[in-house]
Amino acid sequence: MEAVFTLNRDVGIPLHLRDVGVRKEDIPALAQAAFDDVCTGGNPREASLADIVELYHTAW
Predict the structure, then answer these.
(1) Which tens digit of pLDDT belongs to each residue from 22-35?
(2) By C-alpha distance, which of 5, 26, 24, 23 is closest to 15?
(3) Contact call for residues 60 and 27 (beta carbons, < 8 A)
């Protein structure tokens, strides 16, 4: 895992959504869009809207 973080740092890949300009107040709309996406139903694990919001907050 450390090697992945090192590679990300070395090549300049942002670590958090906030690092690429995502605002915290954008999270509900982003989560809703992900939840409504037709591809969401094909995920191997079912996710509620609350699950997706939590995931975005973790990534923010």
Answers:
(1) 999 999 999 999 99
(2) 5
(3) yes
